[in-house]
Protein backbone atom coordinates (compact mmCIF):
# COMPACT_ATOMS: atom_id res chain seq x y z
CA UNK A 1 0.00 0.00 0.00
CA UNK A 2 1.13 3.53 -0.69
CA UNK A 3 1.95 5.70 2.27
CA UNK A 4 -1.23 7.48 3.24
CA UNK A 5 0.36 10.45 5.00
CA UNK A 6 3.45 12.40 4.22
CA UNK A 7 3.00 15.51 6.32
CA UNK A 8 3.26 16.31 9.97
CA UNK A 9 0.90 14.93 12.59
CA UNK A 10 0.08 16.85 15.72
CA UNK A 11 -2.31 17.44 18.59
CA UNK A 12 -4.23 15.24 20.98
CA UNK A 13 -1.30 13.28 22.36
CA UNK A 14 -1.56 11.69 25.77
CA UNK A 15 1.43 12.80 27.78
CA UNK A 16 1.51 9.90 30.22
CA UNK A 17 2.31 6.37 29.03
CA UNK A 18 -0.36 3.72 29.51
CA UNK A 19 0.36 0.63 31.56
CA UNK A 20 2.35 -1.91 29.59
CA UNK A 21 3.74 0.68 27.21
CA UNK A 22 6.64 -0.59 25.15
CA UNK A 23 10.02 1.05 24.52
CA UNK A 24 8.68 3.42 21.87
CA UNK A 25 6.21 4.85 24.36
CA UNK A 26 9.13 6.24 26.33
CA UNK A 27 10.21 8.43 23.39
CA UNK A 28 10.26 12.20 23.91
CA UNK A 29 6.93 14.02 23.48
CA UNK A 30 8.27 15.64 20.31
CA UNK A 31 10.84 14.74 17.70
CA UNK A 32 11.38 12.62 14.59
CA UNK A 33 10.88 9.31 16.39
CA UNK A 34 7.53 10.38 17.86
CA UNK A 35 6.40 11.68 14.48
CA UNK A 36 7.42 8.48 12.72
CA UNK A 37 5.52 6.39 15.27
CA UNK A 38 2.36 8.44 14.84
CA UNK A 39 2.62 8.12 11.06
CA UNK A 40 2.89 4.35 11.35
CA UNK A 41 -0.19 4.28 13.58
CA UNK A 42 -2.14 6.49 11.19
CA UNK A 43 -1.22 4.32 8.22
CA UNK A 44 -2.05 1.10 10.06
CA UNK A 45 -5.39 2.43 11.29
CA UNK A 46 -6.56 3.80 7.95
CA UNK A 47 -5.65 0.55 6.18
CA UNK A 48 -7.37 -1.71 8.70
CA UNK A 49 -10.49 0.43 8.99
CA UNK A 50 -10.81 0.56 5.22
CA UNK A 51 -10.48 -3.24 5.08
CA UNK A 52 -12.84 -4.28 7.88
CA UNK A 53 -14.64 -1.21 9.26
CA UNK A 54 -14.11 0.94 12.34
CA UNK A 55 -16.05 -1.16 14.84
CA UNK A 56 -14.33 -4.39 13.84
CA UNK A 57 -10.83 -2.90 14.09
CA UNK A 58 -9.15 -3.26 17.47
CA UNK A 59 -6.28 -1.39 19.06
CA UNK A 60 -4.36 -4.67 19.20
CA UNK A 61 -4.66 -5.02 15.42
CA UNK A 62 -3.57 -1.43 14.84
CA UNK A 63 -0.52 -1.92 17.04
CA UNK A 64 0.36 -5.21 15.34
CA UNK A 65 -0.01 -3.74 11.84
CA UNK A 66 2.13 -0.73 12.84
CA UNK A 67 4.76 -2.97 14.44
CA UNK A 68 4.58 -1.30 17.86
CA UNK A 69 3.50 -2.27 21.37
CA UNK A 70 -0.17 -1.77 22.29
CA UNK A 71 0.85 0.71 24.97
CA UNK A 72 2.42 2.87 22.27
CA UNK A 73 -1.01 3.42 20.75
CA UNK A 74 -2.38 4.69 24.06
CA UNK A 75 0.69 6.83 24.66
CA UNK A 76 0.07 8.69 21.42
CA UNK A 77 -3.75 8.61 21.45
CA UNK A 78 -6.12 8.33 24.39
CA UNK A 79 -8.35 5.87 22.53
CA UNK A 80 -9.16 4.39 19.14
CA UNK A 81 -11.75 7.13 18.71
CA UNK A 82 -9.16 9.84 19.31
CA UNK A 83 -6.73 8.17 16.92
CA UNK A 84 -9.33 8.10 14.16
CA UNK A 85 -10.47 11.65 14.89
CA UNK A 86 -6.92 12.93 14.56
CA UNK A 87 -6.40 10.80 11.46
CA UNK A 88 -9.35 12.55 9.79
CA UNK A 89 -8.18 15.97 10.92
CA UNK A 90 -4.64 15.38 9.72
CA UNK A 91 -5.66 13.93 6.37
CA UNK A 92 -8.19 16.57 5.41
CA UNK A 93 -5.86 19.35 6.58
CA UNK A 94 -3.24 17.93 4.21
CA UNK A 95 -5.81 17.88 1.40
CA UNK A 96 -6.80 21.48 2.12
CA UNK A 97 -3.15 22.54 2.11
CA UNK A 98 -2.52 20.84 -1.24
CA UNK A 99 -5.55 22.57 -2.76
CA UNK A 100 -4.45 25.94 -1.44
CA UNK A 101 -0.90 25.51 -2.72
CA UNK A 102 -2.16 24.49 -6.17
CA UNK A 103 -4.43 27.55 -6.39
CA UNK A 104 -1.65 29.90 -5.26
CA UNK A 105 0.76 28.52 -7.83
CA UNK A 106 -1.77 28.80 -10.64
CA UNK A 107 -2.51 32.47 -9.95
CA UNK A 108 0.67 33.91 -8.46
CA UNK A 109 3.41 31.85 -10.06
CA UNK A 110 1.82 30.98 -13.40
CA UNK A 111 -0.29 34.13 -13.85
CA UNK A 112 -3.49 32.20 -14.43
CA UNK A 113 -7.11 33.12 -13.78
CA UNK A 114 -9.15 32.03 -10.77
CA UNK A 115 -10.82 29.42 -12.97
CA UNK A 116 -7.32 28.16 -13.78
CA UNK A 117 -6.78 27.97 -10.03
CA UNK A 118 -9.93 25.87 -9.64
CA UNK A 119 -8.69 23.59 -12.39
CA UNK A 120 -5.32 23.27 -10.66
CA UNK A 121 -7.14 22.37 -7.44
CA UNK A 122 -8.99 19.58 -9.24
CA UNK A 123 -5.68 18.10 -10.35
CA UNK A 124 -4.19 18.49 -6.88
CA UNK A 125 -7.22 16.77 -5.38
CA UNK A 126 -6.93 13.85 -7.80
CA UNK A 127 -3.23 13.47 -7.04
CA UNK A 128 -3.87 13.55 -3.30
CA UNK A 129 -6.67 10.98 -3.48
CA UNK A 130 -4.64 8.70 -5.74
CA UNK A 131 -1.96 8.68 -3.03
CA UNK A 132 -4.45 8.27 -0.16
CA UNK A 133 -7.39 6.24 -1.46
CA UNK A 134 -8.21 4.52 1.84
CA UNK A 135 -8.30 7.79 3.72
CA UNK A 136 -10.59 9.33 1.12
CA UNK A 137 -12.89 6.31 1.20
CA UNK A 138 -13.16 6.57 4.99
CA UNK A 139 -13.78 10.31 4.88
CA UNK A 140 -16.59 9.98 2.32
CA UNK A 141 -18.17 7.11 4.25
CA UNK A 142 -18.06 8.97 7.57
CA UNK A 143 -19.74 12.06 6.10
CA UNK A 144 -23.00 10.09 6.00
CA UNK A 145 -22.86 8.87 9.60
CA UNK A 146 -24.40 10.85 12.43
CA UNK A 147 -23.64 8.64 15.43
CA UNK A 148 -19.88 9.12 15.64
CA UNK A 149 -18.25 11.06 18.46
CA UNK A 150 -15.93 12.72 15.95
CA UNK A 151 -18.73 14.27 13.88
CA UNK A 152 -17.98 17.81 15.15
CA UNK A 153 -14.32 17.36 14.15
CA UNK A 154 -15.33 15.94 10.78
CA UNK A 155 -17.60 18.91 10.12
CA UNK A 156 -14.83 21.29 11.14
CA UNK A 157 -12.16 19.81 8.87
CA UNK A 158 -14.64 19.52 6.01
CA UNK A 159 -15.34 23.21 6.46
CA UNK A 160 -11.64 24.03 6.18
CA UNK A 161 -11.32 22.12 2.91
CA UNK A 162 -14.46 23.68 1.43
CA UNK A 163 -13.33 27.15 2.57
CA UNK A 164 -10.23 26.88 0.38
CA UNK A 165 -12.44 26.43 -2.68
CA UNK A 166 -14.83 29.14 -1.51
CA UNK A 167 -11.98 31.64 -1.27
CA UNK A 168 -11.03 31.10 -4.91
CA UNK A 169 -14.65 31.32 -6.05
CA UNK A 170 -15.19 34.57 -4.15
CA UNK A 171 -12.03 36.02 -5.65
CA UNK A 172 -13.29 35.03 -9.10
CA UNK A 173 -16.59 36.80 -8.46
CA UNK A 174 -14.85 39.92 -7.12
CA UNK A 175 -12.61 40.30 -10.17
CA UNK A 176 -15.46 39.63 -12.57
CA UNK A 177 -14.41 36.18 -13.79
CA UNK A 178 -17.62 34.62 -12.47
CA UNK A 179 -21.12 35.99 -12.10
CA UNK A 180 -22.25 37.56 -8.84
CA UNK A 181 -25.24 35.22 -8.92
CA UNK A 182 -22.97 32.26 -8.20
CA UNK A 183 -23.91 30.35 -5.04
CA UNK A 184 -20.39 30.19 -3.63
CA UNK A 185 -20.90 27.80 -0.66
CA UNK A 186 -22.92 25.29 -2.67
CA UNK A 187 -20.62 25.50 -5.69
CA UNK A 188 -17.57 24.93 -3.48
CA UNK A 189 -19.16 21.88 -1.89
CA UNK A 190 -20.19 20.57 -5.30
CA UNK A 191 -16.69 20.96 -6.74
CA UNK A 192 -15.02 19.25 -3.78
CA UNK A 193 -17.61 16.49 -3.79
CA UNK A 194 -17.17 16.02 -7.54
CA UNK A 195 -13.45 15.46 -7.13
CA UNK A 196 -13.84 13.09 -4.18
CA UNK A 197 -16.52 10.90 -5.74
CA UNK A 198 -15.08 10.96 -9.26
CA UNK A 199 -11.65 10.01 -7.96
CA UNK A 200 -12.98 7.09 -5.94
CA UNK A 201 -15.02 5.89 -8.92
CA UNK A 202 -11.93 6.18 -11.11
CA UNK A 203 -9.71 4.22 -8.73
CA UNK A 204 -12.35 1.55 -8.03
CA UNK A 205 -13.95 1.02 -11.42
CA UNK A 206 -11.80 2.69 -14.07
CA UNK A 207 -8.21 2.16 -12.88
CA UNK A 208 -7.00 1.83 -16.47
CA UNK A 209 -7.50 5.57 -16.96
CA UNK A 210 -4.61 7.92 -16.26
CA UNK A 211 -4.87 10.84 -13.86
CA UNK A 212 -4.33 13.14 -16.85
CA UNK A 213 -7.35 11.63 -18.59
CA UNK A 214 -9.58 11.95 -15.54
CA UNK A 215 -8.40 15.49 -14.91
CA UNK A 216 -9.10 16.47 -18.52
CA UNK A 217 -12.69 15.22 -18.23
CA UNK A 218 -13.33 17.07 -14.97
CA UNK A 219 -11.62 20.15 -16.38
CA UNK A 220 -14.03 20.22 -19.32
CA UNK A 221 -16.91 19.96 -16.88
CA UNK A 222 -15.53 22.86 -14.87
CA UNK A 223 -14.97 25.04 -17.90
CA UNK A 224 -18.45 24.40 -19.25
CA UNK A 225 -20.48 24.61 -16.06
CA UNK A 226 -18.69 27.01 -13.72
CA UNK A 227 -16.81 29.47 -15.92
CA UNK A 228 -18.64 31.70 -18.41
CA UNK A 229 -19.08 30.13 -21.83
CA UNK A 230 -16.77 31.69 -24.37
CA UNK A 231 -18.39 33.42 -27.32
CA UNK A 232 -17.70 31.89 -30.72
Automatic annotation (TrEMBL):
UniProt entry tagged with the keyword Secreted: no
Alphabetical UniProt keywords: DNA-binding, Transcription, Transcription regulation
Highest rank taxon of the organism: Bacteria
Low complexity: bias regions: 15-30
DNA-binding region: 58-77
Annotated SUPFAM superfamilies: Homeodomain-like, Tetracyclin repressor-like, C-terminal domain
GO MF entries: DNA-binding transcription factor activity; transcription cis-regulatory region binding
Residues annotated as domain HTH tetR-type: 35-95
Protein name in UniProt: TetR family transcriptional regulator
Region (Disordered): 1-35
Organism: Streptomyces paromomycinus (Streptomyces rimosus subsp. paromomycinus)
UniProt key word Ligase: no
Amino acid sequence: MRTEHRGRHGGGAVRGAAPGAGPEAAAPAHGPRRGATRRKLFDAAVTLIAEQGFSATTVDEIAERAGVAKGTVYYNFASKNVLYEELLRDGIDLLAASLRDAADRAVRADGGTRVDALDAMIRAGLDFIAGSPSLTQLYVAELWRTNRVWQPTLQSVRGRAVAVVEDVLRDAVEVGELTEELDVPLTASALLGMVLVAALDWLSFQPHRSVEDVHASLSRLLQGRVSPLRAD
